[in-house]
């Protein structure tokens, strides 16, 4: 067995820890058990929430801006810049976590603030902008994002429509003539693991709006509004991206990026893992520790822990999983190169205990992993 480092690459544990915190706590347990053990911490993200924080460990610098949040209140958001590339994380400005109302704001939440972040990146001279989507509060088809960049969306009386997906049902005209001209010179990348189309049973409203608080009736209203919005964009651009993979991402913000901004789509996890240099870090490693808050069937569809495990498997490095909750059978884990798993929920006995005691539980699991055979020299 190699005597190389243990690579700890966890994604966030929602409600308990950011990816950076989770990695630090688990790595602390490893080092406490074996001070001689070399441990490398690489916080992960899947192109959604936590992407900016993860990239700050890869030579990116944060830029902060006060922008419009999803419900109209001002929020302090950050994006990441390295050279001429900016990574704008939609959740920073338009995320569901920014909505105080427990019922969400499914009809009125806007992506306007995300458009403001893109404009700020252009102000800094960035010529490549990665739009990392995920965790959005809105189902506005990216209308707010485009409005912040100069698009005019008006009703039959010539007035601008209100914010939010429901207001798209009032839209009769889309004018892109004043869209920020710098966008024509910028390369836009849509970073998304979601491959849903804009409309239909797998679309933005049907699949994701309920997660943002929409009732069945509101889902139907949003679907109709997005259909109207799609027709306006098709008329204005001469293109049809309704069925494009990723168009339904972030409440349809992916659709606006693809159809109007000319974005090309890239898998968000692959982009982040590549930027963080995980493949290089795994060369010669003795163990890779992957994980996230809830590891379930959805995780197997290319989420960050599985992507990291695949890289480790290619490098011949054994993988252990640490998650708040593990809902996948051991045989399935082994198919993905994961030789062992640890659950905070099992250790704590209840979900609330797992959340409240996450720092201590992760440290304890780190000590357990340090004593396991696969970490030995």
Write structural notes for this entry:
With 377 residues, this protein is of the alpha/beta class. It has two domains: 6-44 and 278-375, Glycerate kinase, domain 1 (Rossmann fold); 51-269, Glycerate kinase, domain 2 (Alpha-Beta Complex), CATH 3.90.1510. It is 36% helix and 19% strand. The protein has 15 helices and 13 strands. It has helices spanning 19-33, 51-55, 90-94, 112-123, 143-148, 204-208, 216-237, 249-259, 268-275, 278-282, 304-314, 330-335, 344-348, 351-356, 358-370; strands spanning 6-10, 39-41, 61-68, 74-82, 85-89, 128-132, 152-154, 173-175, 187-191, 264-266, 287-295, 319-326, 338-343. The strands form three sheets. Strands 3-4-5-6-9-10 form a six-stranded mixed β-sheet, with helices on both faces. A five-stranded parallel β-sheet has the order 2-1-11-12-13, with helices on both faces. Strands 7-8 form a two-stranded antiparallel ribbon. β4 (74-82) and β5 (85-89) form a beta hairpin. α1 (19-33) packs across α15 (358-370). The longest helix has 22 residues, at 216-237. It is elongated and about 70 Å long. The chain starts with 5 loop residues before the first strand and ends in a 7-residue tail after the last helix.
Overall domain count: 2
Please state the structural category.
alpha/beta
pLDDT below 50 for ≥5 consecutive residues: which ranges?
A: none
In the CATH hierarchy, what is the superfamily of the largest domain? Glycerate kinase, domain 2
CATH topology of the largest domain: Glycerate kinase, domain 2
Largest sheet: 6 strands, mixed
Mean pLDDT: 93
Adjacency order of strands in the biggest sheet: 3-4-5-6-9-10
Q: Write the element-wise H/E pattern from the N-terminal end onward.
A: EHEHEEEHHEHEEEHHHEHHEHEHEHHH
